[in-house]
Amino acid sequence: MVNGSRYPWEEHYIAAVLETDDAKLPERVGKAHAAIASRRQELNSDHLGTPDEQRALRDAQKGLSVLSRERIGESSSGSRKESSDSGNQPAG
Fold this sequence. Notes:
It contains three helices and no strands.
């Protein structure tokens, strides 16, 4: 387990946030989303758990959305944006 995590699903979230290899990031984010979804499903059958964990789950989902949008180029719906390098080419 990654140091500093309070909930089992946080291990995957922290691993995604700390990933520096852009090639590995989509897999890390996917695993974090899956761990969060699995925990939410467990909580639905357990009276939704504690307010602290619910808040942590929401915050983690928001964090993964930002991470996906900024580092992977995915929209919040999960579809990849097409990137164009033509705008980054020097003129002349």
